[in-house]
Write a structure and sequence with these properties.
- With about 190 residues, this protein is an alpha+beta fold.
- The protein folds into two domains: about 15-90, Ubiquitin-like (UB roll) (Roll); about 90-189, DNA polymerase, domain 1.
- About 25% of the residues lie in helices and about 15% in strands.
- It contains five helices and five strands, in the order E-E-H-E-E-E-H-H-H-H.
- It has helices at about 35-45, 100-105, 115-130, 160-165, 175-185, and strands at about 15-20, 25-30, 65, 70, 85.
- A five-stranded mixed beta sheet has the order 2-1-5-3-4, sandwiched between helices.
- The longest helix has 16 residues, at about 115-130.
- The radius of gyration is 21 Å and the shape is elongated.
- This is 2Fe-2S iron-sulfur cluster binding domain-containing protein.
- Keywords: 2Fe-2S, Iron, Iron-sulfur, Metal-binding, Oxidoreductase.
- InterPro entries: 2Fe-2S-bd, 2Fe-2S-bd_dom_sf, 2Fe-2S_ferredoxin-like_sf, 2Fe-2S_ferredoxin-type, 2Fe2S_fd_BS, Aldehyde_Oxdr_Iron-Sulfur, Beta-grasp_dom_sf.
Length: about 190
């Protein structure tokens, strides 16, 4: 009778240590490889500003800044954000002074229930940086004779249409969009 050998199963680790630098503070965590930045922020670090809305990257309630770029934290794995600088809505103010975008949202009633507001504010800050860096959107005029398009790499003027297009990934079930656009217009250069 022949003996059958079973292959040796190699068990790979299912968790890793990561360092998440959130709002200027480094946090060393051991997380499951499937843990998103959103879950690490909310469940491990008690940062409840980013909200879990759709959990599929479609609503923008979880938007945070990674570096200067806005990011849906429900789609970014914590292991991929190791050592990255993450800014949540809680880290935007300067002490008791709100960030200018936060102040504009207050002044223009850019919120109703407030659930989407942290993501809206972080997204607005990220999109302002994108426009300042010259990144075009879908509605930015194409370069050409007489098009009115900014030269490549130069800041993109933020018209209401530009703001609406750039903020289209952030949903507000209450419909505060006109006030959100007005708030962003106020702080846009």
């Amino acid at each position: 009778m022949a003996t059958i050998s079973t292959p040796t199963v190699q068990h790979r680790p299912t968790s890793s240590e990561v360092t998440l630098r959130v709002n200027g503070v480094s946090h060393r965590l051991t997380v499951d490889h499937r843990t998103t930045v959103l879950d690490a922020l909310r469940e491990h670090l008690a940062h409840t500003g980013p909200k879990k809305g759709c959990d599929h990257g479609q609503c923008g309630a979880c938007t945070v800044l990674v570096g200067r770029r806005r990011t849906n934290s429900c789609l970014l794995l914590a292991v991929a954000a190791d050592s990255e600088e993450i800014t949540t809505v809680e880290g935007l103010s300067d002490g008791e002074q709100p960030h200018p975008v936060q102040r504009a949202f207050l002044d223009h009633d850019g919120f109703q229930c407030g659930y989407c507001t942290p993501g809206q504010v972080c997204s607005a800050i990220g999109m302002l940086a994108e426009a300042a860096d010259g990144h075009p959107s879908h509605v930015t005029p194409l370069p050409g004779a007489g098009s009115g398009a900014p030269p490549p790499g130069s800041p993109v003027p933020l018209t209401p249409a530009e703001i609406r297009e750039r903020m289209s990934g952030n949903l507000c079930r209450c419909g505060a969009y006109p006030n959100i656009v007005a708030a962003i217009e106020e702080v846009a250069p």
